[in-house]
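TA notes. Do not distribute before section.
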Amino acid sequence: MCDFVEVLVNSFLLKIKKAVDFTTSEVIMEKRFQQFTVLITKINRNIKRIKTEEMDKYNLKSPHVSCLYYLFLEKELTARDLCLICDEDKASISRSLEYLEKNEYVICETNEKKKYKSLITLTKKRRRHC
C-alpha cells in the first residue's frame, strides 16, 4: 500500500511540475511577444523619421513618397488603387495627389466623372528624376 501512495504522490507532483513549467513558458513567450511588438513599433517610428528627414529636402511628406514610389513602379494608377496599395485613407491620398499635381510631379487624366477613378501618371520630367 505504501508503494501505491508513493507512486500516486510522485505522479501528482510530476503533474504539478509540468503545469508550473508550462505556465513559466507561457510567461516567457508573452514577454518575448511584448518585446517583439515594442521593437517593431520602434522600427516603424525610425523608418517614418528617416523618410521624413530625407523628404524634407524635396518638400515632400510620407504619403507623397508612397504615391510617387508606386506610380513609378506601376506607371499609372487611380487614386483608389493608391489608397489600397499605400494603406492610406481617401482624404490623405486626395491631398497628396493635389499637392503632387500642383507641383508637377503627376498628371491626372480627368476623363472620368469622378477624379477618384481617373488614371494618374508621373510627369516625364519627374520620371527622369526617379
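Switch to the second chain here.
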Amino acid sequence: FGTAFSMVIAEEIAERNDSCGENLTWQIVDTVKLEIVGTGDMTDYNETTDQPRPWESHKYKITQVAISDGVTTIGQRAFEGHDKLYKIELPNSIVVIDDYAFHYCESLRNIVIPADTKVIGRAAFNSCFELDTVSLPDGLQMICDGAFRWCPDLEEIYIPQSVEYIGENVFEYCGDNFTIICSEGSYADKYAQEYGYNTRYE
C-alpha cells in the first residue's frame, strides 16, 4: 500500500509541475500533443536525478511532440517508451539529443535532426521499430553507442563528413541491406568498412 500510495502522490506532484528545465515549461494540447517552450537545457530523467517526467500520466496518449526554438537539449530518457509518438518537431537550437531520449518510440517513422545538433546520445533512437527515414545535418559530430540499434525498417542513412565519432553497435539490427551514404575516405566510410556495412558515395 505504501509504495502504491507514494507513486500516486509522486504523479500528482508531477502533474502540478509545469517545469521540465530551469527555463522550460510544458503543456498538453488537445490531449495528444506535448508542447515544450522556453530556453536552455531540458531536465534529464534518469537514475541519478530520480525525477519523474512531469507528463508521465499522459505518456500513452501523446502522439506528437513540438519543441520551441531556444531549447538546447533533449533530456535523457525524456520520451523513452512513448509508444504512440509518431511526430516530432525539433528546432534548430537543439545541440544535444541525450541518451535514450527517444528509446522505444515504436510508432516513430521519420526524424529530421536539427541543423545545429552536434551529438546524438547513446541509444537515443534505439528500438524505434518503424523508423525508416533519418536526416542528419552537416555539422553533426558524434553518434554515440547504439543510437539507431534495433531500427529494422531503416535501410540507409546519410552520414555527413563532419561526423568524427560513431560508437559501437549504432546500426546493429537495422535493415538487411543497410547502407551508409557518405563521402569516400570520410570517418563514416572507414566505419562502414570496419563493420561490414554497404556504402554508397555521395
